[in-house]
Amino acid sequence: MADDLCVFIKDMLIVGPPVKKSLVLRISLVAFVMVCGVFMCSIGLKQISTFTKAGFFDAKLVERQCEVPVVENWERSYVHFPKPTTFTRDECACNPVRYFVISSTQRSGSGWFETLLNSHINVSSNGEIFSVKPRRSNITTIVDTLDKIYNLDWFTSASKNECTAAVGLKWMLNQGLMQNHEEIAEYFKAKGVSVIFLFRRNLLRRRISILANMYDQSAKPLNGKHKSHVHSADEAKILASYKPSINTTLLIPELKQADDMVKQALEYFNSTRHIVLYYEDIIKNHTVLNDVQDFLRIPRMELNSLQVKIHKGPLHKQVENWGDIQKVLNGTPYEHFLHEDYKVS
After folding, report:
1. Which segments cross the bilayer (predicted)?
2. Cα separation of 54 and 36, whole Å?
3. Which one, 56, 81, 89, 296, has least CB within 10 Å?
4. pLDDT tens digits for 312-335?
5. At a CB cut-off of 8 Å and minimum separation 6, what does 313 contact?
6. pTM above the 0.85 mark?
7. CB 21: neighbour CB atoms within 10 A?
8. What secondary structure does DSSP assign to 297-337, as a single string?
């Protein structure tokens, strides 16, 4: 049709007196360009509209496809490319992210360990999220919370946002983890979440730390404030000056309960990808932290923490009734707690 129109206008150019031929030629040429331009634009717009309706020109449907890094087949389910709803990852959108959880018990060094992890430029561990009871009231609220964390939509001071390479949280065994272990283990498998278990070998030291922390909660010797962790040697010295007296009648049942909980947790999540760490091992040998970074598939860095250890001295100097404790534990499966120790400079 466009060719016919152009031939028609070409024929028009020879009409008229010779004197006016030049003027008619110019007017006709302008008209020709205008008509052809309008015609071609209308055809183009119709084609674009057709493509849009067909779904070939919808920018919303064009998304950058991220390539999974070269890993073994079993590991592919642990490589993620989250798409947060609260911000855009920009140039880091195709940087793979690993999901993890630090599973531990109170007074086992998990707070210190988490600050070490968060000193890594690409790690975001969001703290003890489920210490808030409503978040662990049922499995639905637990899953909703986990989904936000692993989608990078949970903001804390530890969040690295766009270029996070590993994201997770600290989760105590008694904060809904054990009570809902079947559903949570299933969630971890489905979502590709790796578990970092952190426990304390010497449960007697842990018991002393619990009692000292309970005293601090009520007495608040640091200017009327309770602090579970400190960042100065002076504060640590003040808290370490308190020496609890342990109820030896309850000591063995309490140690057994703590030991059984750890064993049960390892059994519940045995089929989940995990690594088991002990506080004492990290204290004595910081190269253990390289194993953690390798486990999370993140580049190795020197990890640091500003936290200062509170109880540094020999175990027998940490309690008032050491003699009574010795009598109760001697000859029991927990006797080795009396002798296992480590030095901290």
Report:
1. 23-45
2. 27
3. 56
4. 889 999 999 999 999 999 999 999
5. 240
6. no
7. 13
8. T----------B-S--S-GGGS-S-HHHHHHHHTTSTTGGG
